[in-house]
Amino acid sequence: MTARIIDGRAIAAVIRAECADRTRRFEERTGIRPGLAVILVGHDPASAVYVRNKVRACEAAGIHSFTHRLHEKVENEELLNLITRLNADPSVHGILVQLPLPAHIDMARILETIAPSKDVDGFHLYNVGALVTGNTVFSPCTPYGVVKLLEHEGIPVEGQNVVVVGASNIVGKPMALMLMARDATVAICHAKARDLAQFTIGADILVVAAGVPGLITAPMVKKGAVVIDVGINRLEDGKIVGDVDFAGVSRRASHITPVPGGVGPMTVTMLLVNTIESAERFYAAQRTAS
Ligand code: NAD
């Protein structure tokens, strides 16, 4: 068996084109252009690249982006004040604080200050709780991207045995919740899991987000499984790889995402979707209030 490669770039391009169309129609109808404020603290090169990609993707989709670059020694209060101003700014529909933040910044307090209605990353505790109870406000972008990949490929989730490897707040846990909400039976594994293969071998759908290159090898995967590799790891030679042994697992799986070109392009795409959604809700709420 040779797995079908899930082309995240192509699927992301389709959704981004839909976003551009949706933004144009919304602006024609309402005069409102969706706006995303991106806050970048410090000079982490990887964060700078992520922010640049987000800004470019916004421009291409007709979304207004506002980038706020703050010094790495910025005080908590200054950052909190900026977020409070953005919360009140009607031209801003989404607020994103690029992570990681410098160690002296109280990340939890920063994320809790973002208005839940503008929290397009879905990291605010309110939105996390809403995800748990199935009343999602904004789905976190990376797991949301995985759900969209599965949908686009016509892969059913209901009743499937899913194993998520990785239990972080931004990928593994919300991924498990989103698939559970779609009636999958979900197990989550983490770094302390004993005998990882015992779990992964039973998965109809295996989502891997551990940040460990080569973690998942062919004997750990059920024949015909769908394998989604969220990992992004830079090797010493500069090569970017995922967490899955792509060559070996491709011979057992029915579907597999490549790295790069799988989940990665979907993350920014879903940020666009969430921002447009937020602008549409803002407009609907304004009309209801008037
Ligand atoms: P994290 O370090 O916050 O969490 C990693 C999780 O994996 C933890 O729960 C840890 O317990 C688990 N883990 C680590 N080693 C393990 C092992 N040997 N066996 C089982 N579980 C193990 O990382 P994160 O932010 O969730 O990111 C995970 C990976 O996904 C990273 O490679 C990151 O670069 C990538 N990522 C990709 C995107 C994207 O857009 N494609 C977005 C976010 C993160």
Distance between the termini: 60 Å
What spatial form do the alpha-carbon principal axes imply?
globular
Could you give the order of the helices and strands? EHEHEHEHHHEHEHEEEEHEH
Radius of gyration from the CA trace? Answer: 19 Å
Structural class: alpha/beta
Q: Give the strand tally.
A: 11
According to CATH, the fold-level topology of the largest domain is Rossmann fold
As for the number of domains, it is 2
State the helix count: 10
- Can you say what the CATH homologous superfamily of the largest domain is? NAD(P)-binding Rossmann-like Domain
CATH A-level architecture of the largest domain: 3-Layer(aba) Sandwich
Task: Report the helical percentage.
Answer: 40-55%
Sheet with the most strands, sense and barrel status: 6 strands, parallel
Q: What percentage of amino acids are in beta strands?
A: 15-25%
- Text of the CATH class of the largest domain: Alpha Beta
